[in-house]
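Before the break, one more example. Copy the sequence into your notebook; we will annotate it together after we see the structure.
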Amino acid sequence: MRFTRRHPLLVAVSLCALAVLAARPADGDGSHAPGHGSVSGVSAEVARLYAEAESATTQYEAGRREAEKQRSTAQRLEKRLDRERRELAVLHKDLGRIASSQYRDGGGLPLTAHMLLADDPEQLMRGQRAVRQAEVSLDKAVGRSERAETLLARDEAKAAAAWQRLETRNTELATLQRGIERKLETARWKLQGQADASVAAGACRGAVRLDQPETWFSSRWMAPVETYELSASYGSGGTRWANRHTGQDFAVPIGTPVRAVGTGEVVQVSCGGAFGIEIVVRHAGGYYTQYAHLAAVAVDQGDRVSPGQWIGQSGTSGNSTGPHLHFEVRVTPEMGSAVDPVPWLAGRGVTL
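Here is what the structure looks like once it is written out:
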């Protein structure tokens, strides 16, 4: 399986999908019941939460980079502390050596007593000069030791503060991530409940015009979703289909914005049947693209769409085993005329 352009936070959200599926309540239970809330309100809420998730992802990445910088700083401080501890140990040895030398050389006796006891006054003076030099060395060593101890204490405090900032930031990011996951879980299943009700009734609720962020695309063609995992591929077999699989599945969480892969006209918006909520778009050259198992639509039949325009939100409506987008390329608007969408997109510069 190939992975393409996965945002860390959105990937973390999508990993919850299986757990959410396992905990999905039966129709008619509480706030997750089909039809709970207005379709426009819930669709807009999910879109807003995805925008929040994108913003949180940006913050997460910035925080992660800052945390790495803090980690590097703390590691450098730890290395410096180790070096300073070793240097301090050497200074302590020097202090002991100098003190022992002074003791052996009679350090501390008055100069008059040394002169009275000395056999050679000149030798005594040389000895005293050596003692004074030793005293100077001792004073310098004591000063170095005190400065080293002060520096060591300061850097230990810096290292502790750096690790504390790192831990605090990581905790804040984890809390932010969990909060968005909880909000998205609730909103996604409200949206899916409305989709299930529409499919059961066989009637779509109409387009929900979402506030799509202003984005300029340089390419005329693109993938139908931005962040995804490829799952069931064209032509694959299995018990879920009467024949071979007729499209390419993109595993994405419920509510993920679904994009028009290119310029075209919406020729079909329907609810019901194996594909659940679906949209079919006609493109130049006689090709059609289908977007199925949706939770909501953002366009009406007859609308013109441009590359990258949000046309709906993914879901798990119809004959679906879990949240994903079923994407087909056809030579007619009807099923049974599908071609492999992967090489079709590749021929238009889109690599999945």
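DSSP finds six helices and eleven strands in the chain. Residues 102 and 135 are 8 Å apart (CA to CA). Try to locate both features in your own notes.
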